[in-house]
């Protein structure tokens, strides 16, 4: 019976083609506006590293001065070099990494290529396993290179191709920042969205991918300048060593826990560490030490802003307005079929049969609106993505959003068809037969 009613619904699309086309277009526009904004919101608020996000933890220690302190406020979301080194040596968690941004010049060996600027990151070795960075060639640097801050580099596939073509560059040397670095690896396409590890001190949650990675201690050994956030609420002396000894916060830190149940243990250790540092005259604010997993970190950094949520709400408001218009058009469409309903009722069709038939016809209209809405949504996302590379990474529709498009369209059409369908069921057969 469903198949029969469905075929009737498909045939009904050819009745009053102008009215039907108008309904389909109204639904399509409403669905496209809602789905395109929902897709962007879905990507922005999605889990960038599923299965591991609860075990990757950002610790925050407030080491600011007591003078001028307002409880609940903090000077930055990074930590000092002293704290970063202590946490690296703590042995807590399965893995640990400290990182900071870096930028500088590359001097290609090719004479036909000018000097150019690159931006990247200076993590410790555990970074690659923690964040599941895929390698196209080679791999991470060794533990010995990590501790020594050796002149080794991992290049992005784009930078490697730019410098060495399609050849495997592992073992080659590239001059960066005025030093010769040995290429130990090339990482493939790795572009988590949002870029949770680079929200602060870098291109942001939706910025461009890193072009290289060099050891954290290498950047310190070469006294590289800071590329990213730095907050110095206390005075420090001149020179690079004074920066390392200062309370300036400029380094981001991550732990990887073996399991989620290890989080209370890490919190206890961090509290004990802070208490020990206070005995040494530091951390005088005595502010709570905080831990954030990946999703909590995205929320803390307000990756999904109020304007994004407001846009989604306005889009759904527009869809509601489209539903109101669709209800009016369905009422007009079904009202002219009152004689047909009267005849069917006189021949023995129940109100339930009429209700089911007309509701399925509404669903067919919704399905047609979903197909057109999907086309319009993809066009809208393409147009939005062309504005900038940062926005482009949020405009990719996945299978879930494809399914949502059709569910939303059909559900909206069924919802809009409830009142017209109910009205159609109230037709009195005797009155319709007398009028014929």
Automatic annotation (TrEMBL):
<feature type="transmembrane region" description="Helical">
    <location>
        <begin position="312"/>
        <end position="334"/>
    </location>
</feature>
<dbReference type="InterPro" id="IPR003838">
    <property type="entry name" value="ABC3_permease_C"/>
</dbReference>
<dbReference type="Pfam" id="PF12704">
    <property type="entry name" value="MacB_PCD"/>
</dbReference>
<dbReference type="InterPro" id="IPR025857">
    <property type="entry name" value="MacB_PCD"/>
</dbReference>
<keyword id="KW-1003">Cell membrane</keyword>
<keyword id="KW-1133">Transmembrane helix</keyword>
<feature type="transmembrane region" description="Helical">
    <location>
        <begin position="354"/>
        <end position="387"/>
    </location>
</feature>
<dbReference type="Pfam" id="PF02687">
    <property type="entry name" value="FtsX"/>
</dbReference>
<feature type="transmembrane region" description="Helical">
    <location>
        <begin position="399"/>
        <end position="422"/>
    </location>
</feature>
<feature type="transmembrane region" description="Helical">
    <location>
        <begin position="20"/>
        <end position="43"/>
    </location>
</feature>
<dbReference type="GO" id="GO:0005886">
    <property type="term" value="C:plasma membrane"/>
</dbReference>
<protein>
    <submittedName>
        <fullName>FtsX-like permease family protein</fullName>
    </submittedName>
</protein>
<feature type="domain" description="MacB-like periplasmic core">
    <location>
        <begin position="20"/>
        <end position="271"/>
    </location>
</feature>
<dbReference type="InterPro" id="IPR050250">
    <property type="entry name" value="Macrolide_Exporter_MacB"/>
</dbReference>
<feature type="domain" description="ABC3 transporter permease C-terminal">
    <location>
        <begin position="313"/>
        <end position="428"/>
    </location>
</feature>
<keyword id="KW-0472">Membrane</keyword>
<dbReference type="GO" id="GO:0022857">
    <property type="term" value="F:transmembrane transporter activity"/>
</dbReference>
<keyword id="KW-0812">Transmembrane</keyword>
């Amino acid at each position: 019976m469903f198949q029969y009613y469905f075929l009737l619904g498909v045939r009904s699309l050819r009745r009053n083609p102008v009215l039907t086309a108008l309904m389909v277009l109204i639904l399509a526009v409403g669905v496209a506006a809602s789905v395109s904004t929902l897709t962007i919101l879905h990507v922005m608020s999605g889990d960038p590293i599923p299965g591991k996000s609860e075990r990757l933890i950002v610790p925050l220690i407030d080491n600011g001065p007591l003078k001028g302190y307002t409880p609940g406020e903090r000077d930055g979301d990074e930590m000092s070099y002293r704290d970063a080194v202590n946490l690296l040596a703590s042995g807590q968690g399965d893995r640990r990494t400290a990182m900071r941004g870096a930028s500088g010049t590359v001097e290609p060996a090719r004479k036909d290529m000018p000097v150019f600027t690159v931006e990247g990151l200076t993590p410790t070795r555990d970074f690659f396993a923690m964040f599941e960075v895929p390698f196209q060639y080679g791999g991470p640097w060794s533990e010995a290179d990590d501790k020594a801050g050796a002149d080794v580099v991992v290049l992005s596939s784009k930078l490697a191709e730019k410098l060495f073509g399609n050849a495997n560059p592992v073992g080659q040397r590239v001059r960066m920042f005025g030093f010769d670095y040995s290429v130990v690896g090339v990482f493939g396409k790795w572009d988590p969205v949002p870029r949770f590890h680079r929200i602060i001190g870098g291109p942001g949650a939706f910025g461009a991918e890193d072009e290289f990675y060099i050891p954290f201690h290498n950047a310190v050994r070469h006294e590289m300048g800071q590329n990213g956030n730095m907050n110095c609420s206390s005075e420090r002396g001149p020179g690079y060593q004074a920066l390392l000894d200062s309370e300036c916060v400029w380094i981001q830190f991550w732990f990887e826990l073996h399991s989620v149940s290890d989080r209370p243990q890490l919190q206890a250790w961090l509290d004990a560490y802070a208490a020990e540092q206070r005995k040494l005259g530091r951390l005088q604010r005595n502010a709570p030490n905080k831990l954030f997993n990946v999703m909590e970190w995205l929320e803390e950094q307000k990756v999904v802003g109020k304007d994004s949520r407001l846009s989604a709400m306005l889009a759904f408001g527009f869809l509601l307005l489209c539903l109101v218009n669709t209800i009016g058009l369905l009422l007009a469409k079904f009202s002219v079929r009152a004689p047909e309903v009267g005849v069917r009722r006189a021949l023995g069709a129940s109100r339930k049969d009429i209700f089911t038939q007309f509701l399925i016809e509404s669903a067919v209209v919704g399905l047609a609106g979903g197909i057109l809405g999907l086309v319009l949504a993809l066009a809208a996302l393409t147009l939005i993505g062309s504005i900038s590379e940062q926005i482009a990474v949020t405009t990719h529709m996945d299978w879930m959003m494809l399914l949502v498009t059709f569910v939303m369209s059909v559900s909206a059409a069924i919802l809009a068809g409830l009142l017209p369908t109910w009205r159609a069921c109230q037709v009195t057969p005797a009155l319709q037969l007398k009028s014929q």
